[in-house]
Design brief:
The chain is an alpha+beta fold. It is built from two helices and eight strands, in the order βββαβββββα.
Length: 123
């Protein structure tokens, strides 16, 4: 997750993506044989056009959706990046204060994590 000036970057999925218009943290799938930090760095370049310095792992979340689809999400802290943010795939991209995160309709897998951030138990 990208953090700057005590705000967190969140992204809204596009109309054509699964679970359209839900909010999420930028990042994505890990390719076969790809290391987690390298995957995040690649995804942030592809999605936002930035070269990020990937920091420490914050948490890992395992979630199974009602349709049986299971995900394992690894969250890393990103405090530094080079380049201007460029929205390449999302419907919207916003910097949001931690306390405001709960007001966004996040993906189900992210909801508990969002509550922890808002309550300042994480980060």
């Amino acid at each position: 997750m990208i953090i700057q000036d005590d705000k967190v970057l969140i992204c809204q999925r596009g109309e054509e993506q699964p679970m359209p218009f839900k909010w999420e943290f930028p990042g994505g799938k890990v390719e076969p044989e790809e290391e987690l930090r390298a995957a995040l760095k690649r995804e942030l370049d592809e999605e936002l056009g930035i070269t990020a310095t990937i920091g420490t792992r914050i948490t890992v979340i395992r979630h199974t959706y009602g349709n049986g689809y299971a995900v394992e999400l690894h969250f890393y802290r990103v405090d530094e990046f080079e380049g201007e943010l460029e929205n390449r795939i999302f419907n919207d991209v916003r910097w949001v204060a931690r306390a405001e995160l709960r007001g966004y309709d996040f993906l189900e897998a992210d909801v508990a994590f969002v509550k922890e951030i808002g309550a300042r138990r994480i980060l």
